[in-house]
Records
---
Amino acid sequence: MKKTKKNVAAALIALSVVLAGGGTAYAAYHYLTAGEIADSVSVSDNRNLAEAFESQDAIVIDKSQESGAYVFQLLGIVTGSHLEPYVTNASKADIDSQKTYITMAISKKDGSAMANKKFCISPLIGGTPFEEVNNETLKTEMTWFEQDGVMYELVACDDLEVFADQGVWISAVDSFGDERNVFVLNPDGSYTKNAEYQGVSALFEVLFDSSGADNPKE
């Protein structure tokens, strides 16, 4: 998986919340939107990827999971032909209409800084072992930046909508390859977490429109 890093000035509001009677302070974050993340890591001056995330064709997920000391927030996904209205000839080298773009925010539960800690974000395809379809075969690239203690990751990979009829999951693990130990491919084709794994991980199911699949269901 190719990785690039770009330091940007992102506007993130951190609020300190004291739980009633607890006396312990926690940081409650207002995360950047998927469009703001795309805008922040853009390699050009155009906003076409950010606008695509803000369009009605984007999948707004905004779901979170806690694991270990971390909170994983899957914010949004935009993919394939839904990018075409925002892609000009001059910017096609920067934004590929045949790619899926995924945004995720990762923070510490106690509000402390991430200290540049990043995770491997990987799509998992239903009914298909990780060894057959993974970040390498999907030509995945990841761009990230840290701001005010939150790590933001923007992941680009081959179009995931074509797998809509099989099922798609977005996972997070410490390192590429950990997926084979962290997640279980069940007989019905679904992915779930390995109950015996004690490390940090996250797993989100994404529901794509099945009409975009290679073999759409009737």
Note: The two ends are 35 Å apart (CA to CA).
---
Amino acid sequence: MFAPVYLDHNATTPLVPAALAAMLPWLETHYGNPSSRHEYGRAARRAVDEARQQVAAALDAHPTEVVFTSGGSEANNLFVKGAAACLRPGLLAVSAVEHPCVIKPAEQLARQGWRLKKVAVDGEGRIDPDDWRDALAERPALLSVMRANNETGVLQDVAALASEAKGGGAWFHSDAAQAFGKLPLSFRELNAAGVHALTVSAHKIGGPKGAAALVLDKRVEIAPLIAGGGHERGLRSGTENVPAIVGFGVAAELAAARVKDTAARLAGLRAALEAGLAALGARLFGAGAGRLPNTCYFAVLDIDGETLVGKLDRAGFAVASGAACSSANPEPSHVLAAMGVAPEIARGAVRVSLGEATTHAEVQDFLNALRSTVVGLQRMTSVSADAA
């Protein structure tokens, strides 16, 4: 079967063999419910507890701070809506470039009596320091700023931002789903700086879809989104997805062990990729900011991003025209809009996100395919213009 070269690791990652091997018994012979009192159930509970310890260790957190959820979207909603439910409506401030699963629940709260401020970013996608200070001056109750952007890869210095906010009484959350596995992450250090909650997801680090976690400072009171039997310290009721949680634990352990070596190798591959893109005259978004080592977001002038992605797919390369979770939305990226990128340029945006198995040869092959595809599209555009 034809298999394109996969260059869309920010959307999801391949399941690492060790995680799959750990999961298989829990899909076959080990099928107990972790809440059952017999040996089948006790074995499942031990497996969930071990995975919780693995995820906590990978993030320099305590196991009791890890709340398992079904995905990063649920974890983000759990914090935003769950914390808001325990507070008197006030100001909720989020960055203008957050993932929709932070922005959308924040907008829902704005229709329920909360005030919402979307903190501006500069042309590189970094939090605007003046607008951040303006937000803090209004004494927000809740803050959410992602560690790394899923489209551009641009990093926010959440420790510094949280330190500025510390003492103001706000609960500070950071979506770290894209950063985990690509950068070292210490919840203990971030917590000391003033970060109270962190979202991570299994399928961004070589684990399965269907498992994620909200790492939560136990001083923060949140209401559950799902009420029921009181699972996950009463914060997320429902029978645990044992196979996925087990796979998450293994993937987290592996990701933390290799993160520094992986980051250095991916940064080298990205440098080669971006040198080739520069030779094509492509515009790189966020290139002047600190970014994830694997992420490159670019546009070629006068070429539609969706068209380019389709052509590249047929040429054997899987890339993205934006965030996978928002692919049904035909509008230009809200991230690029917040960065001040003109809509006609934003519509050309293509994201390449490298992964653990990506090779230098694949990067060069992609550049060759991109070059020939761009030349072909430009030729078609020229012919159409002449005919008109």
Note: The chain has two domains: 5-12+259-375, 17-254.
---
Amino acid sequence: MMKHRIKSFLFILTPLFLILGACSNIENKHDGEMAEEMEHGEMNHSSSGDVPDGLKEASTPKYELGSKAIIKVDHMEGMKDAKATISGAYETVVYTVTYTPTTGGEKVEDHKWVIHEELKDFSDQPYQPGEAVVINADHMKGMNGAAATIDSAEDMTVYMVDYMPTTGGDEVKNHKWVTESELEPVE
């Protein structure tokens, strides 16, 4: 009689444990996705301000070092319409790239911006759309060392900027990169 009760008890508990285990896995997966979203949303996009070897300062930039401008793009949350201070202006070839992060995850398409001097073993000549390169910059997690394809290339002035996100939070220092067309004079 006792063996029958134990078997019945186990018969009832086993499916319950399986259901609870499955719910736990779903919840953990969901928590992981939430953490990843928060990680991207809360990333501090400040940098040391170091620039790659060979990068040339712009001789006559539209926005001079220390001047103010309004950022008109939203490469990341809190950037659009933020007031920026120019912390660097450089003449280079600017690329949009598609790459798969070295940390795994989905392919990042049309990433703006990587400059010529941030590509591994860069040559004297600019790369053309469709060419394969390796990124030697860490603007985003999983970017440094990632294999990439050039989507577009343009010779222009790029800026490093400091700004306070419009969504609040800490000031972003030495953000790389914003192009001249993505800035607007402060009125």
Note: The first helix runs from residue 2 to 41.
---
Amino acid sequence: MKNLKNYFLLDPDVIFLNHGSFGATPRPVFEAYQRWQLRLERQPVHFFIAEIAGHFADARQSLATFLRAGSSDLVFVPNATFGVNIVARSLPLGPGDEVLTTNHEYGACDNVWHFLSRKQGFYYRQQPIPLPLPGDEAIVEHLWQGVTNKTKVIFLSHITSSTAVRFPVQIICQCAREAGILTVVDGAHAPGQIPLDLTQIGADFYMGNCHKWLCAPKGAAFLHAHPAAQHIIEPLVVGWGWGADRQLTYGSDFLDYLQYLGTNDLSAYFAVADAIQFREAHQWEKVQAACRPLLQEAVDGITALTGLPGIYPNSRAFSQMAIVPLPPIADVPALKTRLYADYKVEVPLTVWQERPFIRISVQGYNTQRDIDILIKALTNLLPDFTK
């Protein structure tokens, strides 16, 4: 499979194994993004007044087809955390209510629920899911131990940021629906990394980033709401889409409340279709198939180096991003600094439940040489930092 490194704008001197944090945009997609910006600047009045509704409709339809969802059931937002804020602030939660989550969730989204729980009086309950990761049935069983008669919402990631764990969200959403519990799924790392069928998943609310694995420009994400749950949503920012005399209308309260929040650069949203086209042009299923053996080699190499067991039950439990346990490290930030300073390796080192991990992302621009340098760097540096 042809390597795609020349298509990306990344510094060629950096071993970039951190696509999961902020993504990377291919040059053709970035150029399309800039064309959208130029189009806006040439005639902003006409763009915002006469054109914008059509551009939104086209962009939503392209993304909806990719996600196997209805185009009227999703809106663009700047990032997944923004989407979590919209949903969490719309839910009528109060004293006596509980929101159930896991101990693997992204810190910024945890903060949303903690903030609102203190303000509104509901309880935010974190249910531990152990590592090494058990099978899907065991994950559901562990999670369901935290469900009580006060549980109104289940919030969890599809693929977690801290541990790169994939949760069986479709099964969880089905169980929750049968129990009358709303589901909010943080899919920040899922679109573009794994196939998605949002209709089949059946979450009440699902938010995902397009700027990560879908390779769209920064600032492109979406919030999908099940038709039966859209009435719950309130505008996070009140603008022209609210009120009896709406200046802008896109066909439903859900779209009107959230689609257009005022004058803004919307180019990243409209370039999502170009990112999808880029993937199609480069047969992305084959690109991903070439990435997985490289990631597996990195996981196996680090596991052999440290002698520590992995956290996944099998190689099918991860796609293009995985974590590997590290031995006790005296100074995790210092090790990360040395990886970059000495070897130009950009890779996150994380601490989860007081255990250090390295999280590796492999994308179409990565090569065997990248993995070899990572293993060499850890071989040379770990002895200096291990407690």
Note: The domain at 283-385 is CATH 3.90.1150.10 (Aspartate Aminotransferase, domain 1).
